[in-house]
Structure formats: C-alpha cells, structure tokens
Description:
217 residues, mainly alpha
Amino acid sequence: xxxxxxxxxxxxxxxxxxxxxxxxxxxxxxxxxxxxxxxxxxxxxxxxxxxxxxxxxxxxxxxxxxxxxxxxxxxxxxxxxxxxxxxxxxxxxxxxxxxxxxxxxxxxxxxxxxxxxxxxxxxxxxxxxxxxxxxxxxxxxxxxxxxxxxxxxxxxxxxxxxxxxxxxxxxxxxxxxxxxxxxxxxxxxxxxxxxxxxxxxxxxxxxxxxxxxxxxx
Length: 217
C-alpha cells in the first residue's frame, strides 16, 4: 500500500521543483508519507494492547490514502505560495530591514522539514501566512514608511518572546505556551500587514502584550 501511494502522490513532480531550494523530491515524498502515517496511525492516545494496535492499524490502513492526498494538496498550496517569494525578496533589496525581517519569517515557516515538524491543523494556516507576505510586499512598494512603522509595532511583542526563547530554551521551542505564542505572533503579522486576509481570532499588539504578561506570572 505504501509503495503504491508513494508512486501516486498527486502533483509530486511540480512540488518537487518548488521544493528544490530546500531538498530533494524524494525527501519531500518521504515527509508526505510520514505525515500521512502520523495522522492515520500515531495520534494520541496510542494503543495500549494488541487488540487496540490491530484496530488502529486497520483503521489507519483504510484512511491512509485519503490523508496522504489531503496533506499533498495542502503542501502544494504552501509550496506554490512559497516558491515565488525568494525572487520577490530580491526585488526589495533597497528596503534591507523589511527584506531581512521577511527572510527570517520565511525561514522559520518553511524549513526543509516543515511538513513533519508542524501538525496538520497548523499547516492549514501556512498558505494564508505566505499570502500575507505577498500582500505586505505589494504595500511596501507603495508605502515603505508604513511597513517600517508596523514592523516596529510587531517587534514590541516579538522581541521579549525571542529573547526568552534564547535565554530559557537555548533557541529550542519545546514549551507548549511558547509555541502557542509563536503562532499568535504569526497571526499578528497577518493582522498588521495584510488585515484583509483575516485572522481566526482577534489579535493586536495590546492583546498579545497581555497574553505575554500573563505567561510571565
């Protein structure tokens, strides 16, 4: 079943080309399969005995094809948005601060193993995050001063988080509250730079500062 699925992932070649700056088509394929298996068979709570194991295996087997295809569809949306961005960043070299900010945002979102390092529910937001970068780039050309102002607003909340991450976690993000805050910061970027794309919950600099303060208690 796995061999058949590996050969029939929809749009794999196209995605492989868009993934090329990050890794090989085989690495991409393996991630898609791994993410499918995780969702089909390895969700918590894990089976505790042979009967539960067999039940999970049979259930996973019947859903695996569907799940791999679903993840592949999402990955193809993400990679299609991602693929155009490095070239666009070359075009805003004059705005060095904004270019560096977007570059670091991109690297944090779409790394070599982004498909297996993020759960599906979170990955589902990635196309919107990347679209927001595109919107930001368009607005930046028209009004660089606005971009600089919004970047400073975002940094008010992001800097304490980045500092805490370095100090407490050696740059590694294992604390669920810190991870949750990281995604709130991503939503804040959408809200500031591309509010027309909407966020699932209300976010603002003030709201996030309150959340951060409550986390420090």
